[in-house]
Amino acid sequence: MSPTQFSLSLPAPSSVADLFVALADPSFPSTHGLAVYAALPGGEFRLLGAVTPSRPSAVLRTGWPADPAAAAAASVTVGVSVETLANLQNLGGAFAPPENRLRIALNVAKDLFNFMASFGKPEGGQMTVPVRCFEMWVGRFEDKYRKDPDFMLKIQD
After folding, report:
1. Residues 6+ apart with CB under 8 A from 154
2. Pairing relationship of beta strands 32-39 and 75-84 according to DSSP bridges
3. pLDDT surpassing 90 at residue 31
4. Are 32 and 84 in contact (CB under 8 A)?
5. Per-position DSSP letters for the chain, written without gaps between them
6. Where is the Hikeshi-like C-terminal domain positioned along the sequence (predicted)?
7. In whole angstroms, what is the distance from residue 83 CA to residue 32 CA?
8. Confidence at residue 101, expressed as pLDDT on a 0 to 100 scale
9. Residue 33 buriedness (CB in 10 A; 0-12 / 13-18 / 19+)
């Protein structure tokens, strides 16, 4: 670890659905923020989210309660890194500013359309799908969300 990074071991990750992170130091540089990562034993660090002076607190969803690997793990390593705002923006979807909300909503709509289209090709401006199609999609969406709360932020156009 460097002077701008630190980590801690958090026991029983499967019991931790959310992490609360806040910038409590008023002298924190306005050009920087904190990136929060987590890694299960033997795994890669995954970005959970970030806080900045303009967004000084966040509740970060972990996805661990629905993750079989987290249920088997005795602990998880949480890492925090001081990053420039430019670096945080480059991290992509996991640090989605409010102006990206339209893109996220469109990703949700596109995911639903693609799921429905998997049941048959749209023809003549119409699509025939099973009656339970939407319910099936919601179940699939919820499963994906439990595994990775940021999955909709990562879909590329």
Report:
1. 92, 93, 94, 148
2. antiparallel
3. yes
4. yes
5. --TTEEEEEEE-GGG--EEEEE---TTS-TTEEEEEEEE-TTS--EEEEEEBTTB-EEEEE--GGG-HHHHH-SEEEEEEEEEEHHHHHHT-GGG--GGGHHHHHHHHHHHHHHHHHTTS--BTTB----TTHHHHHHHHHHHHHHH-TTGGGS---
6. 103-152
7. 6
8. 65
9. buried
Q: What six digits make up the tokens of 156?
A: 């590329």
pTM for this one? 0.63
Q: Residues in the chain, how many?
A: 157
Return the structure tokens found at 83.
Answer: 């990053």
What values do phi and psi take at 122, rounded to 5?
-65, 130
